[in-house]
Specification:
The chain has a single domain, classed as Methane Monooxygenase Hydroxylase, Chain G, domain 1, CATH 1.20.58. It is mainly α.
Length: about 90
């Protein structure tokens, strides 16, 4: 446990940031899951709408440093490709 006041403050900051990052990551994953659920149900319209929200949240998480930029790019790319494959199949 921290004994120095500056170390205690850093610990409080770390905990606040961790909670904030966790909230962003959880929200991002939830919306990714909604896209995948729509894909599994073969609902192209719903998948496209869910994708729009998911891309926004993934990009925002990367911008805020919650995930790395290339990780965000990979997630966006794979989700978009899956939605496009479904749209072409219909």
């Amino acid at each position: 446990m921290a004994n120095v006041p500056s170390a205690e403050k850093r610990n409080r900051q770390r905990q606040r940031r961790r909670q904030r990052n966790l909230a962003h990551k959880t929200k991002m994953r939830t919306h990714e899951k909604r896209v995948r659920t729509a894909l599994a149900a073969k609902d192209a319209g719903q998948a496209r709408e869910a994708l729009k929200t998911a891309i926004s949240l993934i990009a925002r998480a990367a911008q805020r440093g919650v995930i790395k930029p290339k990780t965000a790019s990979r997630h966006i790319s794979r989700l978009t490709a899956a939605v496009n494959r479904l749209a072409q199949a219909h």
